[in-house]
Amino acid sequence: MTEDLLDPLRNDDDQDDEPRIDARAIAKRASGVRPTSRVPQQTDVSEPPGYEDPTAGGARFLSHLLTRSPFLDYFCQVAEASYQGKNAEPKVRKAQQDHKALFRFCVTADMVLRVIVAVLILVLIVAVAFKTLWPLTGSGG
């Protein structure tokens, strides 16, 4: 029944409209092809708009250290992986209700970390000031 239908992809005619090229002729023509000697250059990846490198300047780096909250970030990451849904906010609220002790620990640990970083910064400033001023006041003799 389907033998009478013509297949547009198949050419059953005895005559070929265009000559067929065998694989050896293609290989002979392609033997002169060589890879290019030029290495493609990697394009620069542009930063997203409003991006500031936190390590670019000293003050920005210190500000970045004081604004980070790695424990709460980890809590949010676990909450997003543990609960179903599209939005992260309801997942984090649900995890906060289900795991109150862990949430309190993460908030407290972040605050302690910020206090430690702030104290270290202040100690460093005082040490630099002391070392700078000590030779001026101590070399009286």
General description of the model:
- The protein has 141 residues and is mostly helical.
- It contains five helices and no strands.
- The protein has helices at residues 23-30, 58-67, 70-82, 88-98, 100-138.
- It is flat.
- The termini are far apart.
- The model has no long low-confidence stretch (mean pLDDT 76).
List the helices and strands and how they pair.
Blueprint: H1 23-30, H2 58-67, H3 70-82, H4 88-98, H5 100-138
Helix pairs in contact: 2-5, 3-4, 3-5
- Shape type: flat
Number-wise, the strands total: 0
Distance between the termini: 118 Å
Over all CA atoms, what is the radius of gyration?
35 Å
Helix vs. strand class:
mainly alpha
Low-confidence stretches: none
* Tally of contiguous helical segments: 5
* Helix content range: 55-70%
Biggest β-sheet strands, sense, barrel:
none
Question: What percentage of amino acids are in beta strands?
Answer: under 5%
The topology string of helices and strands comes to HHHHH
Mean pLDDT: 76
Short description:
With 141 residues, this protein is mostly helical.
Notable features of this structure?
flat; 57% helix; 141 residues; mainly alpha
